[in-house]
Amino acid sequence: MHDKTADEVQVHTPVDSERGTLKDVTNDALQLASLGHTEELERNFSLFALIGLGFVCSGSWSGVAQSLVAGVNSGGPAVLVYGAIVIPGMVLMIVLSLAEMASAYPTTAGPLEWTFRLAPPKHAAFLSWMTGWSNMLAWIVGASANVAVMTFQVVFLANLYNPSYESKPWHIFLIMEALLILNCLMNVFATRLLPLIDRIEFWWFLGSFFIVSITAVAAANPHQPAKFVFGTFINYTGWDNSFVVFMNGLVITAGNFCALDSISHLSEEMSNPSRTVPKAMFLTIGIGAITDLLVSICLMFSVGQDLDEFFSSGAPYLTIMLTSTGSKAAAACISTIQLVNNFNSTTSVIQVGSRIIWSFARDGGFIFPKFFAKVNKSLACPVPAVIMSWAIAALVSVLYLASTTAFNALMSCLVLLGYVAYSIPIVCLMLRGRVYDREGAFKLGKYGWAINGAAVFFMTLLGIFFCFPIYLPVTKDNMNYASVVSVGLLVIAWLLWIFVGKKSFTGPSLNGIHINAAPAETKEKI
To answer: What domains does the chain contain, in order, with CATH numbers?
Structure first.
């Protein structure tokens, strides 16, 4: 435990055994004890570091830049630009709902803990188990998706200076595995440096946004007219239904606003998480929405006149840089900047995934729970959980060798699994009349029903279209396997519940951990 001035508090009352809370207590460790957990991680993350982590994990403008072709094919510049306004509005409803629950129950477990506490007691363990596995798989698949993007950036650089180079699947695989190992080592041996890295990365990520946006607009000649950017609807998908095309375009933008729960999984590594988590979540989404909109506009003005070259590009935003500046060095520089962004993002994704594994194991929800719930005090890191987070992501990456179609199919379920993990606790909260057994610092109040309902509706709507194929006619290579893979993974989680979870998963203590409180006039260091 740390001896910090912020940890010095006056304890007025002991544990309220009926509700499992401590009254009039501000100390983070005691608040955590009231939720049934012992403080084991160091609280090193500031609000600024959390915003950096959340900003990078969500991707926002960087994701838009890297998915331009799919977005423009399915709706054109107009859907891409206006989607950057519509989607953040939808996402805000989800974030508000998550922030309220995170404020009430600020633990590393996040959605799985919220579900356990809000679900009907008879079904709490099962629903929490399904939430936890959905949440964990979404994050670990996210690590593989991130490292795949990094790998293609490396291949782009290789092709830029050696056009005769042809990448082989095993080249891609080895690069992916090497990058994942580096990300794992960062998490194990640099845990105490990660808050500093996240603060630096915030400015790096924001700075790279300005570099990409300004370079694209300043160097492009000629620019596309405003009508192309704000009024052009393009449909190269094969769909005849304009609404389907529009929604398919929206979900591409929505995919750049995933990882909404990232900050909540560091609740035990920050001070005053009941207030800090909601603040960091709102600022992350706000900054992400603004940068997403601006980069969409800037890149669409800078597409250039050769649209065929743009649509055939494997790295469209880099093609824009190359055609705008006419400089390989400029394109290589921007690609390297983005490579750093994706590397730091993957480090954070593995970190969050490890925290989910660790907290799940702490409550008996993961294999060999005692082992994976260990924390290395000298490194301030749950080392076994970090290694497992890396190992699963590395195994997923092996799929690329066997079948790129299978690998892409697994990547497609990332957002769907996240929505499952978010929806279950929100629905449980609504079914119990939006009544908490303890309230956090952030409350939705009278707007809660409308916001929760909108969040579930938007996730359902977007989730449906995340399952639609973007292109017709459907082939085995362009088929959207998100629904099949997601259901398959959930069935596996359900089978694990039947054979393992029923016996091992108990969930956190609803009565908290009893701590002998000091008299009101004395102070105690935790």
So the answer is: 42-476 (1.20.1740.10)
Report the amino acid identity of residue 442: F
Tell me what the pLDDT averaged over the chain comes to.
86
Q: Which residues pair with 59 in a beta bridge?
A: 257
Report the SS3 class of residue 43. Answer: coil
Structure-derived torsion over alpha carbons of residues 141, 146, 148, 154, reported in degrees to the nearest 10: -170
240, pLDDT greater than 50: yes
Dist CA 127 CA 121 (whole Å): 10
8 A C-beta contact, residue 75 and residue 249 = yes
Beta strands in 86-228 (DSSP E): none
Q: Tell me which of 139 and 322 has the higher pLDDT.
A: 139
Given pLDDT bands bounded at 50, 70 and 90, which one contains residue 513? low
Round to whole Å and give the CA distance between 202 and 153: 21
Please provide residue 235's backbone torsions phi and psi, each rounded to the nearest 5 degrees.
-135, 95
Q: pLDDT at residue 191 above 90? A: yes
Q: Assign 306 a pLDDT band (cuts: 50, 70, 90).
A: low
Residues 103 and 259: their CA atoms lie apart, in Å, by 17
Helix (H, G, I), strand (E, B) or coil at 177: helix
Please tell me the predicted confidence (pLDDT) of residue 205: 92
Percentages of the chain per state (helix, strand, coil), in multiples of 5? 70, 5, 30
Cα distances from 88 to residues 150, 364, 418, in angstroms, run 25, 36, 16
Contact 328, 161 (CB under 8 A): yes
Q: Are 270 and 46 in contact (CB under 8 A)?
A: yes
Q: What SS3 state is found at 116?
A: helix
